[in-house]
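Good morning,

Attaching, inline, the C-alpha cells for the sequence recovery test we're adding to the shared suite. The designed sequence is right after.
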C-alpha cells in the first residue's frame, strides 16, 4: 500500500472519529450504551472488517473500497478512532478476534453460519481463551470438550472476555486431549443451554465490558468444531498463535491512540511551558512518530507472515509503555485536580493501563522478542 493511500485512509478515519467523541464519557459510565446505540454514532459495518459479500457499503478511499481485511489498514484506521475513544472501538459490533480463527479453521458451512449471523444486524462476538488463575497457558487449560454419545459437551470457565456478556456467538478454546495439541477451538452460540455470561467490574476500557463465561455441559456437535478436517498441528493453538500475532499490532495502535490523545490534550490545555517541559513534549512527539512507524512495520510483517509475531511484540511493548508514560505525566503537567477538571484525561489514564494485559503482558512480549532475535528474525530491534 502506498504512503499516499494510507495518508488518505488516516484522514478518512480521523473524520469518522469525531462521531465517537461526544459519547466517550457516556460509554465509560454506562457500557450498555454500546448495545442501545451500536457504534455510538459510527457506521459500524464500515469498520467491522466484514467480507465484501457481506458489506455493501464499505469505507472508501478515492473510490476504492477498504474492507479492513489487512492488519495495515486496521492499525491506521483504529489508531485514529482510538484517539477519540479506544473503548468504543473495542465495543463495536462485529467479528473482532474470532474472525481470525474463522478465517484459519472454519469450513464453508461454518464460514457461512458465522458471517451471516454477524453481518445481518449489530452482533457482538467473543474470543475465549483466558481462564481464572491460568491465563492463556494451554498446558493449564481446564475447559474441556468431551464426547457425549455422537456429540460433545463443553464445560469450563473463561474470564476477561471482551464483549462476552453482549455476544451472540464466539470461539471457545477447550481441551479435548492432553498436551498443547489437544486444544481445539469450537464455535459456540450463547443461547445454548448451560452457557452464561456476567460482566466484570473494571477501571479502564469499561465500554469493552470484560466478562466471565461459564459453560456447564453446553451441547455441541461436530459441526461446531473448528478445523476438525485438519491435523492436530493445525488446529486450536496454531490458530490462537496466529490470532495473537495479528492482533498485537491492533492493541499497539489502540494504545498509541490513547497516548496521542493524552499528548493532544496537554498541548491544547497548556499555553506556557518551562524549558524542561518543552523538551519533554518534543521527545513525546518524536516517540509517538517512531512508535507509529514501528506499529505499521509490525502490521506489514504480520500481513506477510502471521506465524512471526516478533515485530508485533516490539510494537506492543513500546506503545503500551508510551501510553502509560504520557497519560501519567499529563496529570502532573496539568496540575492538581487535573483528573477532576479534565474527565477525559482521567479516562485516558485508566484506559492506558488495560493494554498491558491484552494479547500478552510485557514479559511475554520480551520472551517473543528474544526468541525472534535468537532465531535470526531480528537484527536491530529494541523494546523501547
Amino acid at each position: 500500500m502506498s504512503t499516499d493511500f494510507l495518508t488518505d485512509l488516516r484522514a478518512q478515519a480521523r473524520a469518522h472519529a469525531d462521531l465517537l467523541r461526544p459519547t466517550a464519557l457516556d460509554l465509560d459510565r454506562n457500557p450498555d450504551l454500546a448495545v442501545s446505540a451500536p457504534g455510538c454514532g459510527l457506521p459500524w459495518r464500515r469498520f467491522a472488517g466484514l467480507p465484501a459479500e457481506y458489506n455493501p457499503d464499505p469505507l472508501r478511499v478515492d473510490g476504492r473500497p477498504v474492507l479492513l481485511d489487512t492488519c495495515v489498514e486496521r492499525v491506521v484506521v483504529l489508531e485514529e478512532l482510538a484517539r477519540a475513544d479506544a473503548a468504543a472501538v473495542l465495543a463495536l459490533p462485529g467479528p473482532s478476534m474470532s474472525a481470525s480463527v474463522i478465517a484459519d479453521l472454519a469450513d464453508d458451512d461454518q464460514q457461512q453460519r458465522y458471517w451471516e449471523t454477524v453481518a445481518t444486524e449489530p452482533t457482538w462476538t467473543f474470543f475465549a481463551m483466558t481462564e481464572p488463575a491460568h491465563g492463556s497457558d494451554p498446558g493449564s487449560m481446564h475447559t474441556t470438550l468431551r464426547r457425549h454419545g455422537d456429540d460433545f459437551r463443553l464445560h469450563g470457565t473463561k474470564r476477561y472476555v471482551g464483549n462476552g456478556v453482549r455476544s451472540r456467538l464466539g470461539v471457545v478454546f477447550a481441551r479435548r486431549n492432553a498436551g498443547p495439541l489437544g486444544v481445539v477451538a469450537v464455535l459456540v452460540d450463547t443461547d445454548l443451554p448451560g452457557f452464561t455470561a456476567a460482566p466484570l467490574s473494571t477501571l479502564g476500557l469499561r465500554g469493552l465490558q470484560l466478562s466471565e463465561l461459564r459453560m456447564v455441559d453446553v451441547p455441541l456437535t461436530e459441526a461446531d468444531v473448528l478445523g476438525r478436517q485438519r491435523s492436530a498441528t493445525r488446529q486450536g493453538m496454531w490458530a490462537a498463535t496466529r490470532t495473537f500475532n495479528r492482533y498485537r499490532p491492533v492493541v499497539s495502535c489502540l494504545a498509541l491512540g490513547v497516548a496521542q490523545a493524552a499528548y493532544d490534550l496537554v498541548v491544547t490545555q497548556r499555553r506556557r511551558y518551562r524549558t524542561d517541559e518543552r523538551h519533554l513534549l518534543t521527545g513525546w512527539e518524536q516517540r509517538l512518530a517512531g512508535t507509529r512507524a514501528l506499529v505499521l512495520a509490525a502490521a506489514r510483517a504480520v500481513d506477510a507472515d502471521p506465524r512471526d509475531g516478533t515485530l508485533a511484540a516490539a510494537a506492543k511493548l513500546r506503545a503500551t509503555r508510551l501510553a502509560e508514560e504520557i497519560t501519567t505525566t499529563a496529570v502532573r503537567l496539568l496540575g492538581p485536580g487535573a483528573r477532576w477538571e479534565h474527565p477525559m484525561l482521567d479516562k485516558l489514564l485508566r484506559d492506558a493501563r488495560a493494554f498491558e494485559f491484552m494479547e500478552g503482558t510485557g514479559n511475554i512480549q520480551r520472551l517473543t522478542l528474544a526468541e525472534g532475535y535468537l532465531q535470526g528474525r531480528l537484527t536491530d530491534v529494541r523494546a523501547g
